[in-house]
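Per-record layout

source: Halopseudomonas xinjiangensis
name: tRNA-uridine aminocarboxypropyltransferase
length: 213
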Amino acid sequence: MVDRALPKRCEACARPSSRCLCSTIPRLHSSTRMLIIQHPSERHHALNTARFLAAGLVNAELHVVEHIAPGSALYSQLADPARRTEVLFPGPGASSLARAADPREHQLVLLDGTWRKARKLLHLNPILAVLPQVALAAGLASRYRLRKAPAPGALSTIEAGVAALEVLEPDKSFQALLRPFDRLIEEQIASIGTELYRRNYLKPGSADSGSDR
């Protein structure tokens, strides 16, 4: 049996060292505190955009957990009345995400996982379920060109985080956070080949298809 060593991975971005994306990750400041709660099944997903978001935003934390134990540091942080905490999730009673005249620090929770796993996180954790839910404006389109969106307006975690921050802090730009995401998409397109990508993923007349605009 041949012993094949696994490729070394960058500890920061979790990518293979030969394809490290750390050079594309900025360090941006925001007034909004972002808590990213990642379902454990997403930890080793190839498109782990939650890690990129947490690495690029100074005022952000990534927690990989399914059950948030009462008394834990994360539980206390979510329940802290000194912060105005909301969950970015388009539930039936969600209000539109907007700036608010509230002197408390705004803490925005992002749930990283499939829609089913995100709903499971809410169901398993009453501390999340009781928090106000907010949603982004309808009609936003994902930049991830290699996947059909599971629902209209479905965005990756990093795209949702950037869109939310630019609503809450319109005087700043957070587009630089998307650089590692864009690079990852470019790498995936290169790996399948440009012609195959155009044939299987592009709609006629789209900007990347080579057709007239």
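summary: The longest helix spans residues 179-192. Residues 204-213 have pLDDT under 50 and may be disordered.
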